[in-house]
Amino acid sequence: MNSMVALRTVFMDGGCFSKVQDKPKALKASKKPMRVVVVSAQKVDKPIKVGILGASGYTGVELIRFIANHPYFDISLMTADRKAGQSIGSVFPHLITHNLPDLVAVKDADFSSVDAVFCCLPHGTTQEIIKGLPTRLKIVDLSADFRLRDINDYAEWYGQPHKATDLQQEAVYGLTEIFRNKIQSARLVANPGCYPTTILLPLVPLLKASLITLQNIVIVSNSGVSGAGRSAKEANLYTEVSEGIFSYGITRHRHVPEIEQELSDAANSRVTVSFTPTLMPMSRGMQSTINVELAPGVSVEDLKQHLTKFFEKEEFVAVLPDGQAPHTKYVQGSNGCHINVFPDRIPGRAIIISVIDNLVKGASGQALQNLNLMMGYPENTGLSCMPLFP
Ligand SMILES: NC(=O)C1=CN([C@@H]2O[C@H](COP(=O)(O)OP(=O)(O)OC[C@H]3O[C@@H](n4cnc5c(N)ncnc54)[C@H](OP(=O)(O)O)[C@@H]3O)[C@@H](O)[C@H]2O)C=CC1
Ligand SMILES: CC(=O)N[C@@H](CCC(=O)OP(=O)(O)O)C(=O)O
């Protein structure tokens, strides 16, 4: 095996399986649609150097987990704020035996040998930090800072004017299955929020095909507590979130403009949604129940068939068999999104249910999928691990 590319892959092409030992070039050369499943990997001799800004948080540590098994990327820089100066093993004891750089403050970070960064910082802080980074870096930002194109929307929903409006205009929205062509050539990708990911994956294809109406989209979403990040907050104490559920941000959650922006683009017309997020007493996982009105002459079966066809070649998105309810347990720890469509008892309406792991497809997994594309690698590299079950 070529030592520069010590990776074994299994190609699934037209139902045949064959072992291949020469990748990205082989992949790029092929015109046929194929799924590639990485079955084992070791680092190439000169991996791409990746920095994780905010490595001491939940999305940061999830990136560490995936990049550890990534053949082409290596972590050379990790930052933190309060935890700057600490080793990764002291911040995350489960990583104590892993050889990783110590955490440094962003102001002390040396980007000279870094090729790409994941930015896992709180929104607001992020735009100022990204503004100061070398322009040669490829960046995937996991925060909300570059997702809204309209600067007025940003100011309205985030309560402050944007401080890097040029970058806001440059950023490509990173919903991979929909925008992979644009992502491939982007320098700055705005990774979608976790709630929007569950909602947009099923609704964008349906609106593009005019199979549902633009009005009367009612969404109730449920999130695991890790969606709120690792920093201590009274509202996220065990005593507050265990053995009970509550909704928050009702009619005013900051993901509303992000969801409406992308749905309106897909429909080529203004779409408004009713969106109610709810916090569930679980660590990870996200489920959205989306109630839609069928366009005239369209059946629930039409929605199901369209989504099945749309996602049939996707490794990470599955439309489930009829009647099977998507379950957060079946995507936990993986980059998967499971979707299903059900007839509502109200004639002319359908219920779509979609689940992801908020930390993976809703954040770090999708971010890695995007950086793979930006660097010219198969987008599933390092991401084909099975979900954790039970
Ligand atoms: N959690 C989730 O499911 C999802 C999160 N996101 C978004 O991704 C981003 C990261 O989220 P998450 O990992 O959950 O957040 P965490 O709160 O778990 O981690 C935040 C990280 O940013 C660092 N940090 C905080 N403030 C500053 C600052 N002023 N300057 C530099 N570094 C700072 C923290 O360092 P220290 O630990 O030292 O304080 C920590 O490393 C957020 O914008 C979030 O909204 C997006 C999708 C899903
Ligand atoms: C449970 C919880 O608190 N979730 C977060 C959303 C997490 C997320 O996706 O936030 P970003 O838009 O910043 O990426 C919230 O409701 O604000």
From TrEMBL:
Enzyme class: oxidoreductase
Residues at the active site: 194
Transmembrane segments annotated in the record for this chain: none
Catalysed reactions listed for this entry: N-acetyl-L-glutamate 5-semialdehyde + phosphate + NADP(+) = N-acetyl-L-glutamyl 5-phosphate + NADPH + H(+)
GO BP terms, alphabetized: L-arginine biosynthetic process
E.C. code: 1.2.1.38
Keywords for the protein's UniProt record, in alphabetical order: Amino-acid biosynthesis, Arginine biosynthesis, NADP, Oxidoreductase
Protein's UniProt keywords contain ATP-binding: no
Alphabetized PROSITE patterns for the sequence: ARGC
InterPro entries: AGPR (IPR050085), AGPR_AS (IPR023013), AGPR_dimerisation_dom (IPR058924), AGPR_type-1 (IPR000706), NAD(P)-bd_dom_sf (IPR036291), Semialdehyde_DH_NAD-bd (IPR000534)
GO MF annotation terms: N-acetyl-gamma-glutamyl-phosphate reductase activity; NAD binding; NADP+ binding
UniProt KW Iron keyword: no
Family label: Belongs to the NAGSA dehydrogenase family. Type 1 subfamily.
Protein name: Probable N-acetyl-gamma-glutamyl-phosphate reductase, chloroplastic
Protein source organism: Artemisia annua
